[in-house]
Specification:
The complex is a heterodimer of chains A (324) and B (158). With 324 residues, chain A is an alpha/beta fold. Among the domains of chain A are: 116-158, Nuclear Transport Factor 2, Chain: A; 188-315, no CATH class. Chain A has 12 helices and 9 strands. In chain A, helix 8 (202-214) packs across helix 10 (251-264). Chain B has a single domain (15-153), classed as Rossmann fold (3-Layer(aba) Sandwich), CATH 3.40.50. Helix content of chain B is 37%, strand content 15%. In chain B, strands 2-1-3-4 form a 4-stranded parallel β-sheet, sandwiched between helices. The longest helix of chain B has 18 residues, at 119-136. Classes of the chains: A alpha/beta (324), B alpha/beta (158). The A-B interface holds A 120, 123, 160, 193-194, 196-211, 244, 251-252, 255-256, 259-260, 262-263, 266-267, 282, 284, 287-288, 291-292, 295-296, 298-300, 313-314, 316-319, 321, 324 and B 55-56, 59-60, 63-64, 76-77, 83, 86-87, 89-91, 93-95, 97-98, 100-105, 141-142, 144, 146-148, 150-152, 154-155, 157-158. The structure holds iron/sulfur cluster (SF4) (3 copies).
Chain lengths: 324, 158
């Protein structure tokens, strides 16, 4: 289904179901057509704002636990939310941990062909302007401007997470828009970035991370954007009691902050890539969690955000476990 | 430690031991009471249960320059609180496998199970681990000198 048609179906579906909803969370066109931004709709007349295209990169599920209280089903209406494949896994993870109630949600799932990483696109084409539309056709990202139509190989412009995505189709939904799409990679390719780094020498890896983390300005955007970083005001990166980090600006503090985020996401990270997308200095923060997920898969045969009934493996144990 | 010549100071090896109150702390005590000879590098921190072990304790200690970290608790299925060490086991194993990825030598971290009556086992565990750490030498932590270029070229998302 072409993008415009999907957008239309999306709007129509919410119109049809709006009587049961108090709020719809989706994406709208941002300050120009090269940007999409989250939108919160409470009036049916505003549903026309909703869009779906490869610029809809934000994972909206985080709002449910952090900004709204979707943990209890009140005798009223539901919250409608749009999710891509990866976003739907975050929803599942939040349901597993009782941060949100499945019954409170009306989930519209959108099979996804990938989202565009604007930084990569702009690096390829610094003078890009007057964009009208961005779409994905097979292996090309098609960018229409007022003057011309440009085509880029998807390997050059999609977000890194999308090029290694195994779950482009929502794993949980009430309605699905369009037909399922095929993952672009096979399962054994999911951790190639991790494996590549693993193949270097330990000291080189330390040097790599030191160089990456050195740029970190500890703005905590990666944490704030993460749908599963649910502590927020009580985050141990900022609390004084316990005091894990000081205000010092040094590599040790930065390093430790990333270990905090990494270890708190162990067995929970759904690989939505938000942490990496929002980082102003482009630190590949998701890579740390990818490693964690690879270990969890090897060791405990678990993948986060797939089965709403499953228990995240580090929140439980198995007395009979051997080999660890 | 003063070296033979007495002129140079060698960095003193420091190993942090997180021991659970009910088993391994008791085990270390038994070893002491029995006057088993033990290395002196270990600084013990008593924790109520290995279930209290936050993997970040280990990471922080190693980043901030401890030379080794040893975690020890009751044998699985023998936890004073029934299951604390079963949670810990998963966390510690995960950490053990994770440390190399961020460039920390995983040999500097060990977890083990020693009960209160196993003074001899305690002596053995702590002696072996201490020898291992002496073999590895002082931990430069994040100050380790090396060249990032090769690793940076391995991973390019831009
Ligand atoms: S990770 Fe998968 S589901 Fe998520 S935006 Fe990329 S392709 Fe779509
Ligand atoms: S750690 Fe990053 S990739 Fe994982 S759930 Fe959080 S934002 Fe998404
Ligand atoms: S978003 Fe980037 S700069 Fe900000 S705290 Fe996270 S890693 Fe550091």
């Amino acid at each position: 289904m072409p993008m415009d048609e999907k957008t239309k179906t999306l709007q129509e579906d919410f119109e049809k179901n709006f009587a049961d909803l108090e709020l719809v969370i989706g994406w709208e066109t941002g300050f120009d057509r090269l940007h999409a931004t989250p939108v919160f709709i409470r009036q049916p007349s505003e549903l026309g704002k909703l869009v779906w295209n490869p610029l809809c990169s934000q994972n909206l599920s985080g709002y449910l636990a952090k900004n709204l209280d979707a943990s209890i089903q009140e005798d009223g209406k539901k919250i409608g939310i749009c999710v891509k494949g990866c976003d739907s896994r975050s929803l599942v993870a939040l349901i597993q941990e009782n941060f949100i109630d499945r019954k409170r949600l009306y989930i519209v799932g959108i099979p996804c062909e990938g989202t565009v990483d604007l930084r990569r696109l702009m690096r390829l084409n610094p003078s890009l302007k007057n964009v009208r539309k961005v779409d994905i056709e097979g292996n090309k990202a098609v960018v229409e401007t007022d003057q011309e139509t440009l085509r880029f190989p998807i390997e050059d412009v999609l977000a890194r997470k999308c090029l290694r995505c195994l779950y482009p189709n929502p794993v949980i939904y009430d309605t699905i828009i369009g037909t399922p799409v095929k993952p672009r990679i096979s399962e054994d390719k999911a951790y190639t970035a991790v494996e590549k780094l693993d193949s270097s020498d330990r000291k080189q890896r330390l040097a790599f991370w030191k160089t990456e983390f050195d740029r970190c300005i500890r703005c905590y955007a990666c944490r704030n954007a993460c749908p599963l970083c649910v502590c927020q005001d009580n985050c141990i990166a900022e609390s004084r009691k316990p005091k894990w980090l000081t205000q010092r600006d040094g590599i040790r503090e930065k390093f430790l902050f990333h270990m905090i985020h990494g270890l708190h996401l162990a067995g929970r990270c759904t690989e939505c890539g938000e942490c990496e997308r929002v980082c102003p200095v482009e630190i590949p923060t998701m890579l740390i969690k990818e490693k964690m997920n690879q270990i969890v898969k090897d060791m405990l045969d678990y993948e986060a955000g797939i089965d709403p009934e499953a228990k995240p493996p580090l929140l439980t144990f198995d007395p009979g476990e051997t080999g660890i | 430690m003063i070296s033979e010549t007495g002129t140079q100071r060698e960095k003193e090896i420091k190993i942090i031991g997180f021991l659970c109150n009910w088993c391994s702390y008791g085990g270390a005590d038994t070893a002491g009471v029995c006057r088993f000879k033990q290395p002196t590098d270990l600084r013990i921190i008593r924790i109520p249960c290995t279930g209290r072990m936050d993997p970040l304790f280990v990471v922080k200690a190693l980043i901030y320059g401890a030379d080794g970290v040893l975690v020890s608790g009751c044998h699985p299925k023998d936890c004073h609180y029934a299951v604390g060490n079963l949670y810990a086991r998963r966390r510690m194993e995960l950490l053990k496998r994770f440390l190399p990825f961020i460039g920390i030598d995983t040999n500097r971290f060990r977890y083990t199970w020693v009960s209160a009556s196993e003074g001899q086992l305690w002596q053995q565990v702590v002696t072996e681990f201490s020898e291992e750490i002496h073999r590895l030498g002082p931990n430069a932590g994040l100050n380790e000198k090396m060249d990032a270029e090769t690793a940076l070229s391995l991973f390019n998302t831009k």
